[in-house]
Each structure stands twice: as C-alpha cells, then as structure tokens.
Design a protein that fits this description.
43% helix, seven-stranded mixed β-sheet, Aspartate Aminotransferase, domain 1, alpha/beta, four-stranded antiparallel β-sheet, Aspartate Aminotransferase, domain 2, binds 4'-deoxy-4'-aminopyridoxal-5'-phosphate, binds glutamine
C-alpha cells in the first residue's frame, strides 16, 4: 500500500466527531453550524432535484453557476472574471485544493506553506512530489514577516499555499501581509493557491482581501471558495475556483479525473444563492459574530484565556494558564470525561507544534453554546 496514506492518521475532525458521538458530547470541534442554512437556497436544490436536469453536467460546472461565480466576485471584490475560461466548479474546496496541488506542483518543486496548516494540504503536496517549506506562525497574532519568507523562498519555489481567513486560528490577513507575500510570489515567479473558503465569515473591523486583487497576482493565483461555508451548508460539497485561463485549464485536467463533476441540483441552488442581496451576507456574519461573542464572554467568565477570532467559525483558547501542557491529552479528557469536543491545534503542525492552543467552534445556537459552557465549568470544578 502507499505509505503516504497507509501511515496517515484519520483526520482530527473525524476523530473528534466520532468521540463526540460516542460520548454524547457537545460538539464544539468540527466546524459546522447548528442552523439548517437558508431555506430559499435549500428549496432551490429541492426544486432542481425534482424538476431540473440530474444527469452529468459539464465537468467545468453548469453555465448558470459559472456566470454567478464571476458576477459574485465582481460584486464583492471588483474582479473581472471570464466565466467561460476562468471559473471551475469542484466537489468542495477539498477537491479544488487537491486538483490545484496535483496539477501545478511538479516533483521536486518547493511549496511554501504556513503552519498551523489545514490538514489536507501536506499529504497532497507530498503526493505531487513537492517539497514542503514551512513558515511557523505563533499565537496570538499568527503573522509572518519578511524574514520568515526570506527563510523559505528559493529559486525552486513553485507554489505558495495560502489560507485566509485562516483555519484554525480565526485570523484574517491584512492587506500589508498579502502585499508582502505577493512581492515574494512575483519575485520568485510562484503560483499562489489561495484557500478563501472563509471569505464571507469575517467580523467587524476586518476585511477579507483576495490575494488575486493585489497587483501582480491576477495571473498567478488560483482562488478557491466553498459554497458550504458561504451558505452554512457544510455537507454541500461545492467548490468555486477562479484562475487565469492557463492555470484554470491545468487544474481542470486534474479535476476531470478526481470527480469529473458535481451534483447539478446543488450547483443550481448555489448559483441562486450567490446572487442573494448583501443583506443575507451581512446577517450571516452578524449572527456568527453574536455567537462568537457569547462563547468568548462565557469562556472568559470561566477564566479561560481566549485568543480573539477575526473570522471563520472558530476561536482558540490558551490552555497553558490552566497548567495544561498537551492539547491532545486535554481535548481527549474533555470529550471523554466532560462531554465537550474541541480540536487540539497541534494537529495542524507538521513539526515543532504549539501545544497550548485549543480550537472551539462557535457556529452554534445559544443552547448548544451554553450547554458547552456549563460542561466546561464542571470540568474546571466550578
Ligand atoms: N479549507 C479550509 C481552510 C477549510 O476550513 C475547509 C472546511 N472547513 C475546507 C478547505 C474544505 O471545504 P469543503 O467542505 O468545501 O471541501
Ligand atoms: N474544515 C472543517 C473544520 O475545520 C472540517 C472539514 C472536515 O471535516 N473535513 O472543522
């Protein structure tokens, strides 16, 4: 068997959600909302299932959705996108990431990644034969400097894998950081695979800037979005890819043999959803911000040290002040003995992990958050 997969552990999300089910825990681990998602979007999917075309759509995506992707990013970020040559629909961002990595990284190419690193990236970089070059981000700011980039960029750098807003840290990269990274991409002639699945889940005081909008990056970025995150429907695996024609063409060659296409009923509903008025996106953000604040306040009242969240469904706590030195052991105990599932952030490190940070998901209704807080209080003996 291929040791790349044979030796891999099961993802931390599946591991923690299984433990949560087994121990009837409040699941603040894997990121998914309690809310069932916008009814009109779900109704569109139901209508398209009953009355629409349910055979193979084009491998590139249904024309309505490709148009909607171009219009959506024109509306939110001023990008001018040719739907016919610059958009691709995949089965989730996970597939888009895999297709982009497998099709762009050549054996021996160096790939710059930032850790904590979303768990699917490294195995796919290795599968492609790429050589990972890691920049380590540290709490509480999780930012990189020019010196960090100097240490990893070389003449062999081919690809940078970026994620902003960043899962698991909940940080949103400011424009200056993106400009700095862009200057390295242009100097070293690197392609940026930009995972922006959390683009709409960004809170007050922060703005998501697609790196594709930074001068010099339009032609060298593969921008990846996820309908699952845009519509709080994480089980809908519909990925949205935008790239210049030469890049998009090669990504689509990998996509054609990973999944080939994506259910047309879901694509039709996502096309409808992307055109929803600004008020939908604003209400989604403010709803999650309210939940973030509720969980943050509750945790602080219990004495937890909360690292603020700027975006995503996640906030992090520092467990060092509790005298805890191992986030895995802490999370295991929390779910088994106290019935609360969380995610140890060391799971997102390939080397020299931070061991004192634990990720909690707040995209939950008030009752779930309060029940989680009550159990955490008991865990602390309060
Ligand atoms: N990238 C990041 C950073 C994510 O957080 C997630 C899912 N939470 C994904 C990719 C996967 O998205 P999808 O479910 O659309 O495959
Ligand atoms: N991205 C989700 C999270 O961070 C999980 C996705 C998955 O389970 N693959 O919780």
């Amino acid at each position: 068997m291929n040791p790349l997969f044979a030796d891999l552990p099961t993802t931390i999300f599946e591991t923690m959600s299984s433990l949560a089910r087994e121990h009837q825990a409040i699941n603040l681990g894997q990121g998914f909302p309690d809310d069932p998602g916008p009814e009109d979007v779900r109704q569109k999917a139901a209508d398209a299932t009953l009355h629409g075309y349910n055979q193979y759509p084009s491998m590139m995506g249904i024309p309505d959705l490709r148009e909607a992707i171009a219009t959506h990013y024109g509306r939110f970020h001023g990008l001018s996108i040719d739907p016919q040559h610059e958009t691709l629909v995949t089965s989730g961002a996970t597939e888009a990431l895999t297709a982009a990595i497998l099709s762009i990284v050549r054996p021996g190419d160096e790939v710059v990644l930032f850790q904590p690193v979303y768990d699917s990236y490294l195995p796919m970089v290795r599968l492609a034969g790429g050589i990972p070059k890691l920049v380590t981000l540290k709490p509480p700011h999780w930012r990189f400097s020019a010196e960090d980039l100097d240490a990893v960029f070389t003449s062999r750098t081919r690809v940078v894998l970026l994620n902003t807003p960043l899962n698991p840290t909940g940080t949103v990269l400011p424009r200056e950081s993106l400009e700095l990274l862009a200057s390295y991409c242009t100097r070293y002639d690197a392609v940026c695979i930009s995972d922006e699945v959390w683009e709409h889940v960004v809170f007050e005081g922060h703005e998501h800037v697609p790196i594709m909008t930074i001068p010099g990056m339009r032609e060298r970025t593969v921008k990846i979005g996820s309908a699952g995150k845009i519509f709080s429907l994480t089980g809908w695996k519909v990925g949205l890819v935008v790239a210049a024609p030469d890049l998009l063409r090669v990504v689509s060659k990998a996509h054609q043999f990973l999944t080939f296409t994506t259910p047309p009923n879901l694509q039709a509903a996502v096309a409808y959803g992307l055109a929803k008025p600004d008020a939908y996106f604003a209400a989604m953000r403010s709803g999650f911000q309210r939940s973030r604040d509720r969980l943050t306040k509750g945790l602080q009242a219990l004495g937890f040290d909360v690292i603020p969240s700027q975006g995503t469904y996640f906030l992090n706590i520092d467990i060092a002040p509790l005298g805890e030195a191992d986030d895995f052991a802490f999370c295991k105990r929390l779910v088994v003995e106290h019935g609360v599932a969380a995610i140890p952030v060391s799971a997102f490190y390939a080397e020299s992990p931070v061991r004192n940070v634990v990720r909690l998901c707040f995209s939950k209704n008030d009752e779930t958050l309060d029940a989680g807080l009550e159990r955490l209080a008991r865990a602390l003996g309060k």
